[in-house]
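Bug #77: duplicate submission created two jobs. Keeping one. Sequence:
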Amino acid sequence: MESSAKLRFAGDYSLNKAQIVTQKGFYQDITNQVIAIQYFEDLFSPFITGKIVVKESLDLINLFPFIGEEYINLDITTPSFNDKYGIKGRYYIHKLTDRELLGDKAVVYELHFISEEAIVDSNKKISRTFGDKISALIKPFVNDNNFGLQSKKSVVVEETLNKIKYTSNYWSPIKNIMHLLDIATNMNKTPNYVFFENRDGFYFISLESLYDNKHITQQFVYDSYMRDKVPNASDIRNPQEDYRRILDISIPIGFDYLDRLSNGMLGSRQISYDATTKQYTTKVYNMFDRFKEQKHLNPNPLNSDSAVFRSNSTVTLYPKMYGTFQGFGDNTGQKTFQERTSLIKMAQANFLNITVKGRCDYTAGQKVNVKLNRIEPAKKTDKDIEDNMFSGNYLIGAVNHYFDREKHECHMELIKDSSVMNMNRNK
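Kept job's structure:
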């Protein structure tokens, strides 16, 4: 089903509902009082967060009253787009900030909201033993009413290769999931799982699966496009082309070689002591050893074969304990720690901050393509002017949907773990 409203321009949106509900069921529609909404999703964060700027003269703070026990129901769609891709849901209002009086008749303030499950997580601590395939444990931690987040949202779980048995030492549901996250390996033996919430629900999935997605949601370009030409020699705005255009772009850090060294992206050495067998073991990790076996966004590593590094650049001490539970061997993350550390750092080593015209179907975890041109004089005869260092496939690592009374913009952090450019091309 598509929205019945007609798209007027790229960045158009419909605020269908902004409704505050109290614990006692009293509600107030504040759609007309909303000045701006920010809605955050992050690939490395378990919950959706956001804030709403409200300007009103109804004295809602005393009317409810606002005490941190209220909810906000949101329904925002992009006209002419499928409504199922809209931003819809119920969120817990956990904070009120920046209240300012505008004369005697109006007041403006910010309401901060978060997913309902975050409040459940903050109030629940679990003391019991769990044992199963890691992927089989995730849905109960999200859906179960006794030890989970009591969520009715969709949960996507990628199957894991390994199983585990451990005791939750008064951990919250999310802390349990994060413990499993550090140990989980997918069917390709790659330990780069993430757990996050986006518009569609919760995901426990490996970055490899997100990288391997054949569908590219959008190609973003940074050029001087303004309008489409039509046969009668006039020109028109093309919303689909406008959606592709990058309004603003920044590259906070192009690369940081010392950071890659000190955080174990290129290589590391791990020393482990087993308290049961009384044995020390040493394990050396090299980023290039499994690069071709793993799945990546782009074909080439971020560093060349000539990268200067030694395993001793990062040395970690990781304890392990064999046979804590009968039949389960070592239940720690000792086997996966180095590779996971390297892969997560690799995913965050190259990123762009961009601003584009907003669409409600943009969400964390989607695969996009970025095309940038080189910053150099170019001739009409030049066939290759693409910036291969920063162009390529990216994931939407984080997205901030920003709505004001005029437009919808998306501020995105795009991440990539690999490069279009072959760093060995001059060899």
